[in-house]
Amino acid sequence: xxxxxxxxxxxxxxxxxxxxxxxxxxxxxxxMALAKAxxxxxxxxxxxxxxxxISLGGGGKKIKPMDIALFTRQLATMTKAGVPxxxxxxxxxxxxxxxxxxxxxxxxxxxxxxxxxxxDSLRKHPKYFDDLYCNLVHSGEQSGxxxxxxxxxxxxxxxxxxxxxxxxxxxxxxxxxxxxxxxVTGILLVKVVPQFQEVFAGFGAxxxxxxxxxxxxxxxxxxxxxxxxxxxxxxxxxxxxxxEKSAKARDQFDRMLLKIPVIGQILDKxxxxxxxxxxxxxxxxxxxxxxxxxxxxxxxxNVVYREATNRIKEDVSTGQQLQFSMRNTGVFPAMAVxxxxxxxxxxxxxxxxxxxxxxxxxxxxxxxDGLTSLMEPIIMVVLGTLVGGLIIAMYLPIFQLGSVV
Length: 405
Known about the structure:
The chain is mostly helical and 405 residues long. It has 16 helices and three strands. A hairpin with a 5-residue loop joins strand 1 (9-16) and strand 2 (22-29).
């Protein structure tokens, strides 16, 4: 039902206002009849209403998280400069090249123009604006400091998306190594080994065990390569569906990822950075610490840190200091705990959490760069071992034949 609710349409309209002056514009609604009713509520007598196109639920370019981050930054900049909110929406919509994003901004603008507050307008699109985003906007509207909160949200979204991009980069390299290794090995087994096999058939001698093993694998690949390919695709699909449907499987997968050398350390540091960045943003916005920790748990990105955050929330709600709660979980490094301790004692917790986030974001950045440099020789070693092993296997009978002669 929620999905259908989001599939609204944009209608262009022309009509007359209360003073009888001609006016026109756009409005989002589920149907033309509802669009006309909404216009009449606004004191406009519509003379012409046409559907412009289906928004968000239909085709068009996909809205990415970075589109939302850019929208937030543009809105924050314009509201700080004193541009009225509705005008800021229009300028932002006109400046975007993504039709779906333009429709989304237009829907929000029309809702706000119709009297809905900004936070509630955003809540109509949970796919793009999560509870954390909407709650921070709500806090800004209530406190009269919306431009300041939008700036904080924009910084938070930019930092979060940059961190996600680094994690994807770190994860893509091992996948690339495995993919290249599989493709090269498959080509050698299906195309190259059979050529040598024809030569060996005329030797009339028993082949070395290593060579025979490679030939057996090659014969299986030649005959059943499509089964192997379909099996790999089916296994990948089954695993992805299992992770999508089963919370227990996702939790086990999260724990397993943290134990992978180098990759686990990157994910560990990124989770700490995300924890600190989210808590810093929400706490600075005036959200009570216990409520802020709810948002942090939702944005943790890993079950280990989600469970740790929930334990911290329980401890803090009973009056325990944040630094002691973090230390008791056993997952936060001493440096992060110490920085939080200084923040609590000095009354600048949000500032210290921001510094912790920046430190670990830089750590992730450096580790990803290091992994990039490390993966290049690893790729060479892996491919060299595979190709070299197959070449040795193919030339072993020729070497033995030479020694006999």
